[in-house]
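Exam revision sheet. Question 4 asks you to relate a sequence to its structure. Input first:
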Amino acid sequence: MIKNEYGDTDLKKSDFYYDLPEELIAQTPLEPRDSSRLLALGRNSGSIEHRIFSDLPEFLREGDVLVINDSKVIPARLIGTKVDSGIEVEVLLLRRMELDKWEVLVRPGRRMKVGAEVSFGDGTLKCRVTDVIDDGNRIVEFSYPEERELMSLIDEVGNMPLPPYIKEKLRDKNRYQTIYAKYDGSAAAPTAGLHFTEKTFEDLKKKGVRIAPVMLHVGLGTFRPVKEENIRDHIMHTEFFSVSEESARIINECRANGGRVIAVGTTSCRTLESASDEQGIVKAMTDDTGIFIYPGYRFKAVDGLITNFHLPESTLMMLVSAFSTRDIIMKAYREAIEKKYRFFSFGDAMLIL
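Answer key, structure tokens:
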């Protein structure tokens, strides 16, 4: 057996497959946000408790820290027309490179060579392809009147980039946004945070739980399908993250005092693991991360995880399996399916402690 970089035997993509009835894929968010179900899972024991998300504060204690990702989803799906031919083109914003330059995904890609121009809305906003990069993504540069601001124009012409498995139209675009979203830049929501309400935070603070925001702009790399059967061969795309001095201090104080650090979502988890040293000390920093966490990984900074139910064979399934064990996670998923939990972005939540 070949050992992987985390000291575990090789794992196959198919090791993370499960059957999901299509009717369990949540098409719309629940109201209120905290009425979603919560599967509380013992990280080591595999014990399962079925609760409601509003019960979350009961599982936490004074001195714990909840780490949230305050990145904000932008209406990153732009539909325009190719200037020279009039054909419809979809441009999906992935990552801001410079003020007006973005890495994007375009459809149809074969027609979008260097120099191709696309016009959006009434033509006030345009972009031109300046480069085609290795994986087929494009670099585009936007142009617009000097008196306008790029993000306000994107907000006018763009649509929320809902995952393809959501077929229902989203009536309120704020429902694909956490209530604490602050910094523009994500191409997808950090969905574990969608369950939180102001009351949830009030109840947590009454328990003596502190909140530490970090920021990771969610790109498509997190959700890109794993194509290689040997998961070691999968390469993650990088995503931009930032941890402030204040949040690093709160997290490190928590660990020093014997508290637990609970990551809200896989993005917060990946941020903390990217920003910590081998002793689990979190450093204030701004950087890119392409960390890929799968079974065998030794967690340094995270003691608990709040997460949604993820797609079969995804890197997110591999991360949660690393946080517990593959067998425990698969058993929990089988029970969630049996109990008819709602899955994926607008679905129910899992707490792993």
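Marking note for examiners. The longest strand covers residues 88-96.
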